Amino acid sequence: MMEYQGYMGKVEFDDEARLFHGEVLNTRDVITFQGRSVDELEAAFRESIDDYLAFCKARGETPERPYSGQFVTRLPPQLHREVSTAAALAGKSLNAWVVDRLQEGVDKAAKVKQTASTRQKSKAATPSPRTQSKARKQRA
Fold this sequence. Notes:
Blueprint: E1 2-4, E2 7-14, E3 19-24, E4 32-35, H1 38-58, H2 77-89, H3 94-125, H4 129-139
Antiparallel strand pairs: 1-2, 2-3, 3-4
Helix pairs in contact: 2-3
């Protein structure tokens, strides 16, 4: 994921073309970028956002912002009733209660990601049994 001026970019690698390519997320406008190296990709991402903002300004349009802070959620009536009841029992508005639950979910996902990353680093730092055996033979 990449971020610039509030816009988020998703990147993929095309192994046939040997090229990184990406797109800006969460806008109806199509904003893409590409590069052969990380530096080239980052520069192209920033340039694409800057070009988009300049294009909108030249046309007298307001650029679309990826997040307004509002979204519509459709849910079954029974769940709507249960969520509203839970919010009332917690002494919160429906909106405040939902925001709290969403934040809890994001925090939990971040912890899972951090734990997975720590495990990967730990595995990379731990020598394999074969490497340990080889080192013992060399010391003997």
